[in-house]
Amino acid sequence: MHPFFRNMRHRATIVLTALALLALASLVFAGVVGSVPISLADMPDALLRLAHGKADTLTATLLSLRLERALVAFVTGAALALAGVMMQALLRNPLADPYVLGISGGASAGALFALMALGALWVVDAAAFGGAAAISLLLYLLARRDLRGGGAAEGGASLLLLTGVILSAMCMAMVSLMLSIAPESRLRGMIFWMIGDLAGAPLRPAPWLVLLAALAFALRSARALNVLALHAEGAATLGIRVGALRKGLFICSGLLTASAVTSAGSIGFVGLVVPHACRFACGPDHRLLVPAAPLAGGAFLVLADTLARTVVAPEQLPVGVVTALIGAPLFLIQLHRLYRK
Hints:
It is a single chain. Helix content is about 75%, strand content about 0%. It has about 350 residues and is mostly helical. The chain has one domain (about 5-20, about 80-340): ABC transporter involved in vitamin B12 uptake, BtuC, CATH 1.10.3470. Helix 3 packs across helix 12 (about 285-310). It is globular and about 65 Å long. The mean pLDDT is about 80.
């Protein structure tokens, strides 16, 4: 094997191992930190009790609640980060994020309508996913020619982006209307849902299945994404099925965004900042970027949520506020370094 490929594989192994350890450390940190701290010495016994289905002590009960919330945060952050990588590759725009096409706005409109109607939790979740699916379908119908590769690379991406921005504005107008007519007793819950909140979010298998399926597609398409990024106009002549690739990216990023928003509401900056940070640290190669971004995004959101529930304990902050306060300065620093180069 050529030394270049050996070095590249060695670097990828080091980076992914470090990120996996960071993700594991973030979960442990989320488990021990809280209003009632848990010592590391007590964790093995509590984990054994949980493994046997016996949350019969205070430590085991607290650890169960915190780890469940941390796992929801991890899968949400991983989904948003991977969706950000896919969206930036689809639109060929480094400023694209999972919410740019209006899918989050559709989920918000559906969820807030269910909250206004005093729907049960599963009704709110179903309405959020239905709203996201409706916007995704409408966007696909309006831009299907470009997703099939019928337009020029830059023109098709621009049309898709503009269509998503218009649909997002329409959804935000509906959200503003519902907030203006909603009873005061429901406003707090509606606003918390809009800015992202993991308190009470249930741990479900569906987001994990969506994440694994999208990750498998992205890993299989990583080489094609590299070609598309470098030679967008001539990718088809190099053997890339551009139409199928773009449709796959659109569907996977839409499903990832819908599952994340349904689980935790609209959490900003994760899908924008994390892919950029991974590019600075790992380079633009999607073979490394695709697995690195979910690990980094999951760890980032777990740490942000831990900060959100502990910084003013026993009160809890919406995690979307924390990600915005952390993500905005980080993104400005990244932009400053990029333009200096």
